[in-house]
Write a structure and sequence with these properties.
Blueprint: E1 3-5, H1 16-20, E2 26-28, E3 40-42, E4 62-64, H2 74-86
Antiparallel strand pairs: 1-4, 2-3
Length: about 90
């Protein structure tokens, strides 16, 4: 996973990141049984790891996978699960 959307997005769902993504790899989603309630996820097959989305997120919810804080590590798998379901 090049980039991951974490917990701060759950109650915000600001789409500024979607508008700046050159590959349109940030996808809006509905809650799925057995996954964390993420309103958006990043398709790892389409993400070019440009980082354009990170500074646009008003709640600092987007991280490079290696930089996801410990408390939000489960969101790495949640992004992967949603990508598997929807892509």
């Amino acid at each position: 996973m090049p980039h991951v959307i974490a917990e701060p997005c759950v109650n915000t769902k600001d789409t500024a990141c979607v508008d700046v993504c050159p590959t349109e790899c940030i996808i809006e989603s509905e809650p799925e049984e057995g996954t964390l309630n993420l309103p958006m996820f990043i398709n790892p097959d389409e993400c070019i790891d440009c980082g354009a989305c990170e500074p646009e997120c008003p709640v600092d919810a987007i991280f490079e996978e290696d930089d996801v804080p410990d408390k939000w590590q489960p969101f790495i798998q949640a992004n992967a699960d949603l990508a598997e379901i929807h892509c």
